[in-house]
Amino acid sequence: MPVPEHRGCAYRARERDEPLLATASTVSTWLLVEQPGPWGAEALVESGLPSLVAEELRRRARNAGVRPILIRRPEGRTGASREAFLVTTRPDDRRVERVRFDDPDELLDLDLRRFRDTAEPVADTHTDPLVLVCTNGRHDACCAVEGRPVATAAAAVLGDVVWECSHIGGDRFAANVLFLPEGVYYGRVLASDVVELAQRFAAGRLSLPHYRGRAPHPFPVQAAEGLARRELEVDALDGVTVVADRRLPEDRREVTLDVAGAAWRAVVAVDHRAAALLTCGATRASRAPTYRLEELEPLAAPDALGSTTV
Fold this sequence. Notes:
Elements (H helix, E strand, L loop, with lengths): L8 H7 L13 E6 L16 H14 L2 E6 L9 E9 L2 E9 L10 H6 L6 E2 L4 E5 L6 H18 L3 E4 L11 E4 L3 E3 L7 H9 L8 E4 L4 H14 L7 E9 L3 E8 L2 E11 L16 E10 L12
Parallel strand pairs: 1-2, 6-7
Antiparallel strand pairs: 1-3, 2-7, 3-4, 4-5, 6-8, 8-9, 9-10, 11-12, 12-13, 13-14
C-alpha cells in the first residue's frame, strides 16, 4: 500500500511557487550544542538537557545576541563525549570553535559575549565545516519528513561534518540545509541533491536553484546579492559580496556589491504575496515578502568599494 504524501507547509509553498531567495534567518553568531534524543518545539528547553542549564543558556544567549541550536548525529550516532560549537558567520570574521563536554554544566563556562565581540579564542579552533540539516519535527512536521532523508544522505557523502539540527527558520522550505561558517542557507533540498551540493561546496560554488541567502544579511540585502548572482551568472561562493547598503523611499533598498573586484549597484523593491498559512502549525495567514530587482548597474567610481555598510 503506497504511503500517502505529506502535504504540510513545504508542499503548499511549492504549490504556490513561493521564492526561496531572501529567506535566510539573519544570524551572525551561533551556539550549537550536541544533545541526542528527542527535542520539543522549543528544542533548547524541551530536550534532555538539565532544565537549569537550558534556561541559563537561553538567557545568556539572548543577552549576548547569540542563536542557540541543538544538534545531534544522524541515525542516532554518538561519540565518546559530546561537542558544542561557537560559530560566527560575519563576512569579515568567519570561524568555528569547539569544546568537548561530558557534563552539560561545563557549557556555562563559555563566554558567549567575548566570542561575539572579540577574536580572542573561547574554545579550541575547529577547521572543518559544519553542515546542518533541520529535522526538528516537533517544531514543524515538514522539517522531520523532508529533513531526515537529507541528513542521512548527507552524512553518507560528507561524514561527520553533518548534523541534524533544531529549528533554523523557514519550515515551509524544508529540507533546509545550512553550511557554516559560510552562513549559506539552502532550501527544498532532496536526498538526490546532496551529492551535487557537496561537490559544489568543495569547489567553492553555490547551488543557486536551492539558495535562500546568507545568514548575516537582512532580507533585502540577501535579495540584492542573490538576484545579482542570477542576473550576472555568478555562483562562486565569494564571487559577490556586500559592501554597503542604504534604505530608499517606498520600501526599496540600494546595495553596493563587489562582483569579482568590480563595484555594482543593485536596487531591490519589496512586494508581498497573497496571505497564506506559512507553517504546519499556523492558525493565521501571513503575507510573505518577495523581492524584485529594479536596477543593476556597474559603478565606475574608483572608490566605489570603499563605502561602509549602513
